Amino acid sequence: xxxxxxxxxxxxxxxxxxxxxxxxxxxxxxxxxxxxxxxxxxxxxxxxxxxxxxxxxxxxxxxxxxxxxxxxxxxxxxxxxxxxxxxxxxxxxxxxxxxxxxxxxxxxxxxxxxxxxxxxxxxxxxxxxxxxxxxxxxxxxxxxxxxxxxxxxxxxxxxxxxxxxxxxxxxxxxxxxxxxxxxxxxxxxxxxxxxxxxxxxxxxxxxxxxxxxxxxxxxxxxxxxxxxxxxxxxxxxxxxxxxxxxxxxxxxxxxxxxxxxxxxxxxxxxxxxxxxxxxxxxxxxxxxxxxxxxxxxxxxxxxxxxxxxxxxxxxxxxxxxxxxxxxxxxxxxxxxxxxxxxxxxxxxxxxxxxxxxxxxxxxxxxxxxxxxxxxxxxxxxxxxxxxxxxxxxxxxxxxxxxxxxxxxxxxxxxxxxxxxxxxxxxxxxxxxx
Length: 433
Ligand code: UDP
Prior knowledge:
Blueprint: E1 12-15, E2 18-21, E3 25-26, H1 38-41, H2 43-53, E4 60-65, H3 72-86, E5 90-95, H4 100-113, H5 122-138, E6 143-149, H6 156-159, E7 164-170, H7 180-190, E8 195-198, E9 211-214, H8 231-239, E10 249-253, H9 262-275, E11 280-285, H10 294-305, E12 311-315, H11 322-331, E13 334-337, H12 346-353, E14 358-361, H13 366-369, E15 377-379, H14 382-394, H15 396-413, H16 416-431
Parallel strand pairs: 4-5, 4-6, 6-7, 7-8, 8-9, 10-11, 10-13, 11-12, 13-14, 14-15
Antiparallel strand pairs: 1-2, 3-5
The protein binds uridine-5'-diphosphate.
């Protein structure tokens, strides 16, 4: 049975007469077909993928992650997993079980690994380990490859190495300047993985003994979030959320998280508003089920907006789903991702795939996608962000030129079939085929 988890923290399964926590929920990912991508990515890449997949036919692969909803990892796995199945492997995605105490600890860990000063206390480390033990016990065996995403379930390999022939740790976060105490405490759990994938070479911690692969993630051009949407349809959707579609709109799509800097985006918008009083801002953010801080930061963002009727703060509880995100990205005059830390930033590729004028923080994976002045603009402060936004609002042809270059950059580097090919190459090497 495939169960799509949304509230996996609350679920339980009846096994015999005992009620035990529902650990490792399989996620229902639906079906996707590689050949549908041929007209976008080209026949050469699709054939290369089929060649790589042939000797891997029937191999069993499991992805393990912390949540099936919200954030970049789940966004990727909803496409990557069905495409791996489509090319002939048996692939599943399972989400670990965790209660609030676990996700409080792992959010702290996530922040510390991206450089926040606060490490977990002894109790929180014990909680993290205890939930990993619980999930490790329940992981079924016999996998050819087990791919563990991010630090939340990272202890699985150390706990039950026998359950898969080969293991891979996939890191989605920026580990370039971590809290030293946190990374050193995690190190013994990471260093045993035989293979690891990072977005960028500067994220690789010094003591990884794994064979390290540098592979950037990608977006799916055929999902409702990224498929072609007409300007008229996009405007129609945005108007339903109170946007005046005849006035300029700045937009950021992101979780409510300090590293995404929604408060800095509001500051930039306020500077823009001094010269362009008709400007509006939309902050669109989903609440991830493994992000207990999200609501606090959502409220802090509302407080910072201070009742300005031209600032629209929306989330998935206002019915903002994939199509609406698409519509906001298509309709906005300028899309912003003013992060101060960013593992990769799928929202960047999503925006420039739509040919939009884009401004991003010059951090983490954003410069991989944005060549300053060519595919968008890179900034380091709210003031610079405002300056670039004013430039783009004053000169729409500049924005269109950046957008065109951005779209081609995404087409050749950041679409899902390329990412699938990179995974198949790694699986082939790991399994010796
Ligand atoms: N997202 C969404 N709705 C929102 C906010 C974000 O669907 O209201 C999606 C966004 O489109 C992107 C993903 O969540 O696909 C965020 O991935 P990213 O790599 O940008 O950041 P992360 O949240 O993983 O740090």
